[in-house]
Amino acid sequence: MAQTWREPIERHFGSGEELHSAFRVLELSVVEGWHFKMFPKLMKTLFKRSVDPSRYGQFASFSGNFEKYKEALGIKNTLVCYVYLIDRKGRIRWRADSEAEMQDALRLVENLKAISLE
Fold first, then answer.
1. pTM score
2. Which InterPro entries does the protein's record reference (predicted)?
3. CA–CA separation, 39 vs 91, rounded Å?
4. How far apart are CA 37 and CA 31, in angstroms?
């Protein structure tokens, strides 16, 4: 799901080291529940296998109590992807969830252009 948001950014601005200097693309995977605590090594191995090694510097995982963050970020459904555009001052300037439709992805790229000029 995150790929549908990431690909338009990479097509327009480049990827990895080429990515625009005004912003970074980061992915955070949140794991809630008992399975991470019971099998931490297995979960870490599964994460490493699911992420392309070239993206390791752009990927992080979180396990633990995520409730206070859910409320602050407006997360209602933990089964879908959430995308946030956060400016240099730490303000959420734009958000979306689920898979990107073409119009949504274009809106994200336009917002990134505007913020990168600030």
1. 0.76
2. ATP10
3. 35
4. 10
Q: How many CA atoms lie within 13 A of 37 on its CB side?
A: 5
Residue 83 buriedness (CB in 10 A; 0-12 / 13-18 / 19+): buried
Rounded-to-10 torsion of CA 87, 91, 93, 99: 90
For residues 58 and 40, give the distance between their C-alpha atoms in angstroms, rounded to a whole number: 21
How far apart (Å, rounded) are the C-alpha atoms in residues 95 and 97?
7
Going through the chain in order, the beta strands assigned E by DSSP cover 27-31, 59-63, 82-86, 92-97
Structure tokens at 52: 């392309």
Q: Do the beta carbons of residue 1 and residue 98 sit within 8 Å?
A: yes
- Kindly give, in sequence order, each residue whose CB lies less than 8 Å from that of residue 16, ignoring residues fewer than 6 positions away: 54
Reported as a pLDDT band with limits 50, 70 and 90, residue 62 is: confident
What distance in Å separates the CA atoms of residue 106 and residue 113, rounded to the nearest whole number? 11
